[in-house]
């Protein structure tokens, strides 16, 4: 299961950093907006593909769905906090919240692995 966690963490770097740079900048404030939906789909599809090498297709789809919603909630809440409190992209507070954001995503992958281990 450590391999699964490693692949999910590598996937996260690709989807959060690699793919986003190719997309036009879009707001993630609206949970139903195109920007956040596309970003969450990147994560969900990649999670589903990775998990399918370890578990049944049904369970992989369930884990992809969990990642989709968790990622959306984390990023939407973060974006709304930035807007509400006027957190500037160059500020120390911005980087502190970005750190929390990343830690929450890592915890999500940890729990996906734990959930898979229970099946």
Structural overview:
The protein is mainly alpha-helical and about 120 residues long. Helix content is about 75%, strand content about 0%. It is built from four helices and no strands. Helix 3 packs antiparallel against helix 4. The model has no long low-confidence stretch (mean pLDDT about 95).
Termini separation? 13 Å
Regions with pLDDT < 50 over 5+ consecutive residues? Answer: none
Question: What's the overall geometry?
Answer: globular
**Helical run tally:** 4
Beta-strand fraction estimate: under 5%
Cα gyration radius (Å): 15 Å
Total number of β-strand segments? 0
Sketch the major β-sheet: none
Which class do the helix and strand fractions yield?
Answer: mainly alpha
What is the averaged pLDDT score? 93
Keywords:
119 residues, 4 helices, mainly alpha
Reconstruct the topology from this structure.
Elements: H1 2-19, H2 34-52, H3 57-84, H4 92-118
Helix pairs in contact: 1-2, 1-4, 2-3, 3-4
Quick recap of the structure?
The chain is mainly α.
């Amino acid at each position: 299961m450590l391999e699964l966690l490693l692949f999910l963490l590598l996937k996260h770097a690709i989807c959060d950093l690699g793919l986003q740079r190719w997309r036009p900048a879009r707001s993630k404030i609206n949970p139903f907006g195109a920007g956040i939906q596309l970003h969450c789909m990147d994560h969900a599809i990649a999670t589903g593909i990775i998990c399918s090498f370890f578990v049944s297709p049904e369970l992989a789809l369930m884990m992809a769905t969990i990642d989709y919603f968790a990622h959306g909630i984390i990023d939407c809440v973060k974006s709304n906090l930035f807007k509400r409190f006027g957190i500037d992209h160059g500020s120390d507070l911005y980087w502190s919240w970005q750190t929390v954001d990343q830690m929450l995503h890592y915890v999500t992958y940890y729990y996906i692995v734990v959930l898979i281990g229970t099946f």
